[in-house]
Amino acid sequence: MDLDELLHRRRPSQWSLFISSPTLYITRLLYAIRRQPSDGVLETQTEPIMVVCISDTHNKQPSLPYGDILIHAGDLTQLGTQQELQDQIDWLDSQPHPHKFVIAGNHDKGLASFRNADTTSSAIPDSDSENTIPTVQLNWGSITYLSNSSSTITIRERTLKIFGSPWTRKNGNWVFQYPHEHGGDVWFQRIPDDTDILVTHGPLKGHLDTWDGWGCGWLLKEVWRVVGRQRRLRLCVFGHIHDGYGVERVWFDEFQRLYEEMVIANSDARKMRRDKLSLATWVIGTVSRWSVVVKMVWVYVCSRIGVGYVDGAGRSDDVVQLVNAAHVGGLRDRTLRNAIVVSI
After folding, report:
1. In whole angstroms, what is the distance from residue 83 CA to residue 64 CA?
2. One domain, residues 17 and 135
3. CA distance 186 to 168
4. CA nearest neighbour of 17 among 231, 213, 305, 189
5. Do 73 and 179 reside in the same domain of the chain?
6. Which domain holds residue 127?
7. What is the pLDDT of residues 288-344, one digit of tens each?
8. Looking at the structure, do residues 119 and 155 belong to the same domain, yes or no?
9. Helices 254-275 & 22-34, crossing angle to 10 degrees?
């Protein structure tokens, strides 16, 4: 299936989504009810820092709003040639934002010396590996290029650490991709505990990654670890899954954990159906998924009436904002989306 066919395949109906997985459908409804809509602006005790987020421009050069920080989360180009890359870098370099950060995406072939996806963990570079060095000569100007690396900046006496990585789950013959079974080699303890802003090309599993959950569960697990260590993380910026464009506020609490458990269980169930496992295994899996639905309802009701399971909903000091800033449209959608501005 080529890119045009992929973007124009028919969207599934709500009924077909319900039939395919009733437990996941109900769980997503519950999660949507609890989740607050976000306008990207949070109340802070200090003057907010405005972050402009864009991703997956694929050679497009949209008009960008002003902010303190500009982040491009990969797929600057379509083919990743030196000329395409330099054109996009020049466009970003010309922007007036005081701090600009870029990571590569799977289309940006010129930024990777490792071009052919391997099936072994040895294909995954360390942060200081020569495989993270671009293979083409580029003039980055005022842009900081992050590749499994961090940069620390100070804005109005606030110090922020930004970590960026281009790696995504393998899907096709692209660069900066890893087989799913080696996701732990890519992400385990790779994100610094004191990260304030995380930039990855792909999303966390279950968050702004469409119904099929194309995000990475290993990345999700690593972000849980980082949040649990210092609770400094405030913003995750990504793209890659064009149809997931938007902003989501999360609190990494029990309600969210149950929702994510269901998303992962649904992925496992699809794999079991493909592998044609036994009826007993299917029954056990089905009972387990319905038990998650019941737990999720219970936690939600308890949090509403203030009896145990009190979560962080509504507390801006605990919220982590997730941003899928894909500029190019998704499934059956040629709309070009605006950059997303959030405050931290």
Report:
1. 22
2. no
3. 9
4. 213
5. yes
6. 40-252+319-343
7. 889 989 998 888 888 777 665 555 444 556 899 999 999 998 766 678 999 999 999
8. yes
9. 160
Indicate if 279 and 234 belong to the same structural domain.
Answer: no
Q: Report CA 183 to chain centroid distance, whole Å.
A: 14
CA–CA gap between residue 205 and residue 183 (Å, rounded): 12
Residues 246, 125 share a domain: yes
Residue 149 sits in the same domain as residue 248 = yes
Of the two residues 266 and 248, the one the predictor is more confident about is 248
SS3 (DSSP) at 276: coil
Sheet holding 158-165, edge to edge: 149-155, 158-165, 197-200, 235-238, 320-324, 246-250
Residues 6+ apart with CB under 8 A from 269: 21, 285, 289
Degrees (nearest 5) of the Cα angle 48, 52, 60? Answer: 170
Closest CA to 162 of 267, 68, 257: 68
Do 77 and 207 share a domain, yes or no? yes
Find all residues with CB under 8 Å of 25, minimum gap 6, and list them.
17, 18
The total number of structural domains in the chain stands at 2
Report the length, in residues, of the chain. Answer: 344
**Is 80's pLDDT higher than 50?**
yes
Write the DSSP assignment of 63-124 as a string of letters: -----SEEEE-S---SS--HHHHHHHHHHHHTS--SEEEE---TT-GGG-S--S--SSGGGS
